[in-house]
Specification:
By secondary structure, the protein is an alpha+beta fold. The chain is 58% helix and 13% strand. β4 and β5 form a beta hairpin.
Length: 284
């Protein structure tokens, strides 16, 4: 058990070095609890003059029996006395969870080669949660979100390097991780906008080419009906004009204001010209 626990803690970076000794973060303690079939449950959290006191107990999943219980505070010590209320409340619950785990399982953590005191209980652990490095699960979540939004991973890394001065996602702290997650949808929106603009330019170029070709085409004189080859050419042009009109209408939902109405008018003109060409080809 101790060896398996140490392997998980090292692989997922769940320990913090304080004064040269490794103290396991609360995520490591709750991992140990789950390995033993135990989960943490909040009993209560109260606030008095800005100081939060949380009570947490450990419950065995098999029968619901309480095997450990502890309380902890957060609020009057720096840097937490300057943190928002939700952050102080959360840290009080985190400390209580770690303490409850310590009371029940300190000997297993010691056998695994770590200090029996959770990192969050150490007075020298002054860094808020936001300054801690991201966990392995958070890294996986970030990679999955990038893929889900269809973003270029190298492009996101470039943004991260410019914004935070780091080269790899694993080097993000939790505050930077949260900021990057919030930025990803904006990156996806910009990407979609650029793709729509590119599609619009391609449709515009095709439309102009078709119109130029239609204007250059000399219609047969009335007394001379078009040949079969000319009919085929007229139908082909009509088909291209109809396709261009369809493309205009497809991108129209992404446009707004005068642009939307102008493109609707251009699509209608192309459709009318296509119908005219097709009618001449079929009735001549």
């Amino acid at each position: 058990m101790a060896g398996a626990l140490a392997d998980v803690i090292e692989r997922q970076h769940l320990a913090t070095v304080i004064q040269g000794r490794k103290h396991v973060n609360v995520e490591g303690w709750t991992t140990l609890a789950v390995m033993l079939g135990v989960v943490a449950r909040e009993v209560q959290t109260v606030e008095t003059e800005g100081i939060y006191t949380a009570v947490v107990e450990l419950v065995r999943m098999s029968d619901g029996a309480c095997i450990s219980r502890a309380s902890a505070e957060c609020g009057d010590e720096p840097p937490w006395n300057k943190r928002p209320r939700y952050a102080r409340r959360s840290m009080a619950q985190t400390r209580a969870t770690g303490k409850a785990c310590r009371l029940a399982f300190w000997w297993i953590m010691a056998l695994a080669g770590y200090e029996p005191t959770p990192a969050e209980e150490m007075p020298d652990a002054q860094k808020p949660d936001d300054d801690l490095p991201i966990t392995g699960n958070q890294h996986k979540m970030l990679e999955a979100r990038i893929g889900e939004l269809g973003l270029n991973r190298e492009g996101v890394k470039t943004w991260t390097a410019r914004r935070f001065g780091i080269e790899h996602f694993q080097e993000l702290n939790r505050q930077q991780f949260g900021e990057l997650l919030a930025q990803l949808p904006k990156m996806a929106e910009i990407k979609a906008k650029r793709e729509a603009e590119q599609a619009e330019q391609e449709v515009k170029a095709e439309r102009e080419a078709i119109q130029a070709e239609a204007e250059a085409q000399t219609e047969p004189e009335p007394e001379q009906p078009p040949t079969e080859a000319q009919k085929w050419t007229m139908k082909a042009k009509a088909a291209r004009m109809e396709e261009a009109a369809q493309d205009l209408r497809a991108i129209r939902p992404y446009r707004s204001g005068k642009t939307r109405y102008r493109e609707a008018e251009e699509a209608a003109i192309l459709e009318n010209e296509a119908r005219h060409l097709r009618f001449k080809a079929e009735t001549a």
